[in-house]
Amino acid sequence: TLYLNGVYLGAGTYGADAASRRYFGHSARQIDLWQSAMLAGILKAPSRLTPISDPEAAAQRTRQVLANMVDAGFISPEQAAAAHPKPGKPVAVAVAQPGARYFADWVMDQVQGFVGFTDRDLVVVTTLDPNLQRLAENKVAVALDLDGAAAGVQQAALVAMAPDGAVRAMVGGVDYRESQFNRATQALRQPGSAFKPILYLAALQAGYKPEDRFNDAPVRIGNWQPKNYEGTFRGMVTLREALASSINTVAAQLAERVGPKRVVALAERMGITSRIKPDASLALGTYEVTPLELTAAYAALVNGGEGVLAYGIREIRDTSGAVLYRRSGSGLGAVAARSENAAMNAMMGQVLAVGTGKAARLDRP
User: Fold this and answer.
1) DSSP H helices in the chain
2) 290-308-254 Cα angle (round to 5)
3) Cα–Cα distance measured from residue 201 to residue 344, given in angstroms and rounded to the nearest whole number
4) pTM score, whole prediction
5) For the segment 319-349, what is each residue's pLDDT rounded down to a tens digit?
6) Phi, psi for residue 359 in degrees, rounded to 5
7) Closest to 13 (Cα-Cα) out of 96, 72, 76
8) Is the distance from CB of 314 to CB of 326 less than 8 angstroms?
9) What is the signed CA dihedral for 323, 329, 332, 334, rounded to 10 degrees?
């Protein structure tokens, strides 16, 4: 019952009752044998076998389902022969963005943990912003259209988060109907240079200053020789310049001096839950994290240094209005002093002003 009440059945509908109303104009309690078989048939390919997308393919699939029911002994050949389509009144419904299903799945996995098992209908109030979700899905599609083929990329993920950890938009993939794997919360990927702000914040906490100078030159740490993206070296540079230009040799030296274990401890305080090995290569983001983890870690840089827990549920209540859960604002506590946070943000501003992020420059700080 749980499965049939939530499974995707095409045209933006989830669950047998919603699909029945969409395709036939009435509740699933009123469907006949033909309509029942048609809903069962849609499961094989819900984007292709609906009476809206392809009436003939849907009818052919329905006849196959009826034949299978005869073979299995559930109905007689006479009952199958008597089943036939009848004029229906499909309901035009406002279909939510299918991409929001990734967010909905992520939220639904958490509900039982907050309220326990219940057989009551629940109302879950979430953090999702429909306008931002629509924009997020559009931007992911545009980015893939423009750059996906050239980069050999067919999938993408996006997380948009408020400074307190509230997830406002989530795109877990190109098409939920084709793949329910949520790349925003489940896909582990190397963050690469996106990890460097955590390393540099750890350095500030260890007493280093943005003006401190390091030598951008060939470096060997054990058997590892980090290389810069451009393949060149600049000599003496400040930490501010090194971050702005994403210089790998300086990041590797900095990790060694600060201590990999100290960097890992800060990353965990900032919300990184995936396992990070405390070795020098972590400076270049060589371990794997999810987009959701990394976004939550960055939130501390935005909100004055408070670690956050990513969340999507504000409140859960039953249909009578009784509140079963309400978020009270718990977080991870302070991970950086305000002075450290301000210095880090000033350094990151240089990435857009003069560094590797100039193409992302805004008309404001």
Assistant:
1) 2-6, 16-24, 33-42, 55-72, 77-82, 100-115, 130-143, 149-151, 196-205, 239-244, 248-258, 260-269, 291-302, 338-353
2) 65
3) 6
4) 0.76
5) 899 999 999 877 889 999 999 999 999 999 9
6) -70, -15
7) 96
8) yes
9) -170
